[in-house]
Amino acid sequence: MEVEDPWNTIVYSSSIPVPTSIKQLLVKQVLKSEGTSESNPTHIHNSRGRAALLERGGRYKGLVWSVDMEIGESIVVWHMATDMYLYWYKEQAKDHPEYLQAHAEVIKAVEALSNYMLFLLAVHP
C-alpha cells in the first residue's frame, strides 16, 4: 500500500444517509434467505441478484446472464445499466416533475449504491 492510498481514500470518499426504505428492503432481502441452505443458488450469499431476476413470474429471466459472469464484470454492467436507466427515467420525467419528486429518495439511494459498488470494485478488486 502506498502512502497516498489512505489519503485518496479519505479525500475521495464520502457518506450519505441511507433512506429508511432502502434499509427496510435490505432487511427484507436478508430475511428471505433465512432458513434457506447457503448452498442454494437463491440464497443471498450466492444469488448475486439471480433470485430477484427470477421473481415476478420470470419477467427478468433474460437478464440472468448479467449475474453469471465474473463479479467485477457484473458490477460494471449493472453500474452502466443503472446509469443509463436513471438518465432515461429523468429525461422521461422532465414533463412530470412530480414523478421525480416522488421517487427522489429512491433515485438518490440507487445512485449511491451503484457508485459504492463500483468504488468497492476499484478499491478492492
Beta-strand proportion: under 5%
Helix content: 55-70%
**SSE ordering:** HHHHHH
The strand count comes to 0
Mean pLDDT equals 84
Largest sheet: none
- Write down the oligomeric state: single chain
Low-confidence spans: pLDDT under 50, at least 5 residues? none
Q: What characteristic shape results from the CA principal axes? A: globular
Total helical elements:
6
Instruction: Supply the number of structural domains.
Output: 2
- The Rg value, from CA coordinates, equals 17 Å
Q: What would you call the structural class?
A: mainly alpha
Distance between the termini: 14 Å
Helix and strand arrangement:
Layout: H1 4-11, H2 20-32, H3 44-47, H4 50-54, H5 71-92, H6 97-123
Keywords:
2 domains; 6 helices; globular; 125 residues; 0% strand; mainly alpha
3D architecture notes:
By secondary structure, the chain is an all-alpha fold. It has two domains: 14-68, no CATH class; 69-125. It is built from six helices and no strands. The protein has helices at 4-11, 20-32, 44-47, 50-54, 71-92, 97-123. It is globular. 0% of the residues are buried. The mean pLDDT is 84.
Report a brief summary of the structure.
By secondary structure, this protein is an all-alpha fold. The protein is built from six helices and no strands.
